[in-house]
Amino acid sequence: MWEYTDKVKKYFTEPVNVGEIDNPDGVGEVGSLACGDALKLTFKMGEDGRIADAKFQTFGCASAIASSSVLTELIKGKTLEEAAKLTNKDIADFLGGLPKEKMHCSVMGEEALRAAIADFRGEKVQEHDEGEVVCQCFGVTDKEIERVAKANDLHTVEEITNYTKAGGGCESCHEDIQQILDRIWAEEGAKPKIEVKPPTQRKLTNIQKMKLIEETLEREVRPALKADGGDIELIDIDGDKVLVSLRGTCSSCAASQATLSQFVQTKLREFVTEDLVVEEVKP
Question: Is 35 known to be catalytic?
């Protein structure tokens, strides 16, 4: 289980500004249900030229909900110029920090804000339009990887995956991601890395683990898959190996492996234990 700060827990269990603004001035939508995280941000400008109201709708984990809720609080009362300076670091810092594997939730908030501001101005978010897609599984471009790496001092493929999900699917783009990292840090000069210890995990009995896996699949995974015409069946549990079978549209989807590794496995690691590995059993 991840170790969350009290602020993350508060904004997850008691989120503010949930919903969608009628006739919004700006709309930003990022992520997708297939990836496990999706966020829609809407805001309304006041007569004083400042953001009068902001609301969000999100599908995701505790970090995604907390990050989205905090985002709306942080931008209210700001001018567009002030709001545009907000970064994923500001979101994570306000929450007292996020597990490194969950930093992509704060990045998703920043991207939704940038998209909403661009929508208000009648512009487009450039890295998605002009960049070259590096990660086909999650549609992440080289421009986005470069921007996030520089903004957050990221030097490894694993860190890029934590912050953008790029490389977390079929992994065929790992070499390309590393080349981007090598290039940008060769240009700017490498910076020293600070090792971060993984979050402490609780010990579970076999019965506790099985029960949590079943509950997580039923509560966190199955509703999202069914929304896209798919489903999932738990076949067996062998130690830390969870054997499942995809049903419906998920069984023939080209992104099924990404769904298993970045959605199903991520959810199970969040709500059960991070040692779990999900494998598909073909019918």
Answer: yes
Rg (alpha carbons) of the chain, rounded to whole number: 19
pLDDT tens for each residue of 196-250: 444 445 577 888 889 999 999 998 888 888 877 889 999 999 999 999 999 888 7
Distance (Å) of CA 102 to CA 3, 66, 269:
11, 11, 11
Catalytic choice (105, 135, 137, 173): 105
- The contacts of residue 252 (CB under 8 Å, 6+ apart) are none
**How does pLDDT run across 132-164, given as a tens digit for each residue?**
889 887 778 899 899 899 989 999 999 999 998
In the residue annotation, 170 being an active-site residue is answered as no
Distances (CA, A) of 32 to 3, 181, 224, 228, 265: 25, 26, 10, 11, 16
Q: Walk me through the domains of the chain, giving residue ranges and CATH numbers.
A: 6-121 (3.90.1010.10), 126-188 (1.10.10.1100), 206-280 (3.30.300.130)
For the entire predicted model, the pTM comes to: 0.62
